[in-house]
Amino acid sequence: MRLALAATLLLAGIASAHAQSSKDPSGTWLTEDGRAKIRIDRCGAGQAQVCGKVVWLKVATTEAGAPRTDIKNPDPKKRSRPVLGLPLIEGLQPDEAKFSGSIYNIEEGKIYQVSLERENASELSVSGCLLKVLCGSQTWTRVPDVNQQAANVGAEPAPQKPAKPAAK
């Protein structure tokens, strides 16, 4: 009886961990329009929340060659912040199979209520509303982490060990 109970508890713990990881939006995601990659990581107390920042832009500079900045921000003091590295998602809370909170839209300088929900291993549903009236959704696609891409650029393959001669 004790063995059956222990096995049941172990399986329940594994199923719970799998359910938690299957909804976890952590990773790097390409926005639906392909103009940015957003890195989402766990954050907050106990790593229970999620946060996200811009890690790549299709067009990272202005026509003058300067880094793109947060020019639409309603706070004039923040308009000179570079977009690369800018936090868009801060402290989204777990809510059933998704994470909910607010997201900053750089293109408009507005904050939307948003929910993130993993559709599958490679797709993230992003649904948001401004004032509960202007709503929309899009699907972001998982991409390799930007840091991994940079680490692999120009990397030389590992040296191969010479084969041992066959025994006679």
Any descriptors?
disordered N terminus; 168 residues; alpha+beta; globular; 8-stranded antiparallel beta barrel
Describe this structure in words.
With 168 residues, the protein is an alpha+beta fold. The protein is 17% helix and 40% strand. The protein has helices spanning 2-23, 146-152; strands spanning 27-30, 36-43, 49-57, 87-95, 98-105, 110-120, 123-130, 134-143. The protein has an 8-stranded antiparallel β-barrel. Strand 6 and strand 7 (123-130) form a beta hairpin. The model is unreliable at 1-20 and 148-162 (pLDDT under 50).
Average pLDDT: 79
The total of helices stands at 2
Largest sheet: 8 strands, antiparallel, barrel
What share of the residues does DSSP label as strand, in percent? 35-45%
Q: Write down the secondary-structure element order.
A: HEEEEEEEEH
Estimate percent helicity. 10-25%
Q: What is the number of E strands?
A: 8
Overall, the morphology is globular
Contiguous runs where pLDDT drops below 50 for at least 5 residues:
1-20, 148-162
**Sheet with the most strands: spatial strand order:** 1-2-3-4-5-6-7-8
**Distance linking N and C termini:** 59 Å
Overall SS class: alpha+beta
